[in-house]
Here is the input.
Amino acid sequence: MSVRLIIEKLHYHRGNFSLRTPHFALGESVIALLAGESGCGKSTFLKLCSGILKPESGSIHLIPKVSPALMLQNPLYQVISSKVYDELAFPLQNMQLSAREIEARIQEAAALWQIDALLGRNLHSLSLGELQKVMLAVTLIMKRPLTLLDEPSSHLDSNSIARLYQILGQETKRGHSFIIASQNLFELHFCDELILMGRGEIAGHYKREEKALYKEKLSEWGLLFEKGDCSDN
Here is the structure.
């Protein structure tokens, strides 16, 4: 199996919080849902994978050696520009793409995420749902082999969530992989794998169809699927 991410003997400590990952590997062309109780370390894990945080020990190997794209839980924390168009252009300018390529990617992203009407808007005038769509477009416009999304659907309606995963599915056909931290377990319906995190460590890593293996752990944590969710299908 081709891999995008390998973690070995990772240890991170800050204050009273500690995160350990003895071993973890994520394959190519995978959408993985990262689930767990609030405060268990999901956001910290994503920041460690992205390189924003540095571990006390252990190693994180990216294949290829290209920094992952990361969308934070509160996208306002990573806004650079005032205008939507400029925000989309910023990472592409950093990649030193030509003006023609930058324009083409912006128009492609605007159509894909249905944000054409927002390109001239001020980011701080957007609704939370609009802002989330824009920052998803900004994050994916870089076309990184690995993308990390922290609660990317918290302000999206059901149609927009379905579109999000449709877009991610298209990207996996290009070999791209995604780790998505979410409290919405229904989203496992759109994912290939489930990563369970608890008490600062990965407690399990499963294929979506391995329901018998992960349902007991979810029940133990009180993270039960609701009626009609994919676990009952």
User: Anything to note?
Assistant: The helical segments are 42-50, 84-94, 99-112, 128-140, 158-172, 211-221. Confidence is low (pLDDT under 50) at residues 226-233.
